[in-house]
Amino acid sequence: MRRPLIAGNWKMYKTPAEGLDFVRQLAPLVDGVNDRDIMIAPAFPALETVAGALKSTSVALGAQDLFWEAEGAYTGQVAPRMLVACGCRYVIIGHSERRQYFGETDETVRRKLRAAVQAGLAPVVCVGETEKEREAGQTFPILDKQIQNGLEGLIADELALLVIAYEPVWAIGTGKTATVGQAQEAHRFIRSQVARLLGSPLASAMRILYGGSVKPENISELMAMADIDGALVGGASLKPDSFSSIVKFK
Ligand code: 13P
User: What is the pLDDT of residue 1?
Assistant: First the structure.
């Protein structure tokens, strides 16, 4: 019922030329794949070049962050309409690396989410617990807090395009994937919390992606879980062959 979404988060990798090279190699590999959505999120300087190369493909463009103001004296920030003008359809919000290194909080996630929604961008809101929080039995309360505070003040009608990415911080870039059981349990919990806050129709239509050391070897078992609707892929999205293998999971 939910259309799978495989998204690549390139993080701080790839110049415009490297992004272009990637898309030229990826395009034939995913040609004809039309029963799932594909997205890649380059760094800001590569957005426009990659957008141009993606035009003849079914791959959508996303950004890795945005600022909530429409314009102004905010050195270093990028406004939602600038992303739209570059061809972005998605924007990642509240990635754990932004929370960890750049002071992102549930409050900034909320403001960015509102701005993304107003600009017509599909937000990919990231949530997830650290290793310490998991060991302390805090996984569900942390997810609950991130979702409740991050989505506060928005109504279901505004969130039709909402995607949530569950990325356990301890599984990002570590080679340690959550077990499919751990991932499914977290995804089911996230869906139930969204249903409680915003109603079942939105919660059952909303895609929840898993992120954290997703590879061609583990995508199929993850996608077999009832509440896992796709993946947010870091390291393995940087090579056309590994990313296309993930996209073409069976
Ligand atoms: P890795 O796939 O490199 O673990 O990164 C996951 C991630 O952070 C995607 O946003």
Answer: 85
Q: Which two tokens stand for residue 223?
A: 């996608």
Average pLDDT over residues 174-186: 91
What atom in ligand 1 is closest to the CA of residue 97? 8
- The Cα–Cα gap between 249 and 179 comes to 18
- Tokens encoding 185: 């349990």
Neighbour tally for 75: CB within 10 Å: 4
- Index of the ligand 1 atom closest to the CA of residue 212: 4
Whether the Cβ atoms of residue 116 and residue 64 lie closer than 8 Å to each other:
no
Residue whose pair of structure tokens reads 């954290």 in the numeric block: 212
Are 120 and 90 in contact by the 8 Å Cβ rule? The answer is: no
User: Strand pairing partners for 91?
Assistant: 63, 123
Say how many Å lie between the CA of residue 22 and the centre of ligand 1: 18
CB 39 near ligand 1, within 6 Å:
no
CATH domain 5-247 topology? TIM Barrel (3.20.20)
Q: Return the pLDDT at 173.
A: 85
User: What residue's CA is closest to ligand 1, atom 1?
Assistant: 234
The pLDDT of residue 102 is 97
Nearest by Cα to 160 from 185, 126, 184, 194: 194
Point out the catalytic residue in the list 104, 129, 167, 187: 167
Residues in Cβ contact with 141 at an 8 Å cutoff, skipping those fewer than 6 apart: none
The Cα–Cα gap between 56 and 206 comes to: 27
